[in-house]
Amino acid sequence: MRIEAKDLTYIYGAGLPWERKALDGVSFSVEEGEFVGLIGETGSGKSTLVQILNGILRPTAGEVLLDGINIFKEKALLSKVRFQIGLIFQFPEQQLFAETVFEDVAFGPRNMGLGPEEVSRRVEEALLKVGLNPLQFRNRSPFSLSGGEKRLVAIAGVLAMKPRVLILDEVTAGLDPKGKKEILARIQLLHQKEKATIIMVSHDMDEISALAQKIIILKGGRVVLSGTPEEVFSRGEVIEAQGLALPTIPKLFYSLKQCGWDLPATVLDLKEACRLIKKELTRASG
Q1: Which CATH architecture has domain 3-246?
Q2: CA dist., res. 227 & res. 267, Å (int)
Q3: What are the distances in angstroms from CA 92 to CA 80, 97, 158, 159, 210?
Q4: What does the pLDDT look like over 244-268, one tens digit per residue?
Q5: Coil vs helix vs strand at 57
Q6: 158 burial class (0-12, 13-18, 19+ CB within 10 angstroms)?
Q7: Which segments of the chain belong to CATH 3.40.50.300?
Q8: Checking DSSP bridges between strand 85-88 and strand 69-70, what pairing results, if any?
């Protein structure tokens, strides 16, 4: 499934004295099976954009094409899109409501009109995908779980609808290091084993650099930079101009290059970074 955003513009309060343009002519594409990182400072338009991609918001102008079809063309198509493009909001555990984990995860499939056997099968599969044993968790109250487990249950509720695209909006926000590591590991597994198409919004540059195949940077509702992690993070001066911080390793290399070290524009792999620094130190001392 290919997603294409074409000249997307969105204005809050259009025609009113307090109107605000959140997106201004945003265009990009996401190929099937691709992992895309969406980054930008607060107020750059990230959350507005992903809600348009999911069909929650209708753009003021522009189109979202799903395999070449405008998702806003027909109301019936739009309702299907919301099952095909799963959106997980920041702090998704706040949307948990049922008495048991099973009932929470089953909510989406039931809304799709699926029968009891298929619903049960999907709940079990979704829980396994996020690393939760269905026998141990299905009858537990979601409110008795840890923060990381609650978030995994919320993700399972979206996966149970079998979306073809998964959008994650700051999905690790507020978690402790252990919970964050678990969530990211599960997301990486979904991409690698399930070949899921993933769009992940994050402020954490190290997360994005470790997972994404393509990065899109927004500022003031516009795309200011896009490309592979290597291409994007080699533009240290542009990244800093957007009010963002480089990932740890590219930040170090950017600083060392400014001090005159003969290093590549960017390196993301830790072992390779250590090798290159050692080589430069040896050359400098020799």
Answers
A1: 3-Layer(aba) Sandwich (3.40)
A2: 15
A3: 21, 11, 10, 13, 23
A4: 889 999 899 888 888 888 888 788 8
A5: coil
A6: buried
A7: 3-246
A8: unpaired
- The percentage of the chain sitting over the pLDDT mark of 70, rounded to a whole number, equals 99
* Amino acid letter, 48: T
Using CA atoms, how far residue 88 sits from 64, 98, 137, 147, in Å, is 19, 17, 21, 15
The helix (H) or strand (E) run that includes residue 198 is strand 197-201
Under 8 Å between Cβ of 186 and 129 = yes
Three-class SS of residue 48? helix
**What digits encode the pLDDT tens for the residues 157-186?**
999 999 989 999 998 888 888 888 888 998
Tell me the whole-structure pTM to 2 decimals.
Answer: 0.90
Kindly report, residue by residue over 3-46, the tens digit of the pLDDT. 999 999 999 998 898 999 999 999 999 999 999 999 998 889 99
For residue 151 the two structure tokens come to 């978030």
Task: Kindly list the distances between the CA atom of residue 81 and the CA atoms of 2, 54, 64, 115, in Å, as whole numbers in the listed order.
Answer: 13, 7, 11, 21
List the beta bridge partners of residue 211. none
Measure the CA–CA gap between 281 and 200, rounded to whole angstroms: 37
Alpha-carbon gap, residue 47 to 59, rounded angstroms: 13
CA 193 to chain centre: 17
Tens of pLDDT, residue by residue over 214-250, are 999 999 999 999 999 999 998 888 888 888 889 999 8
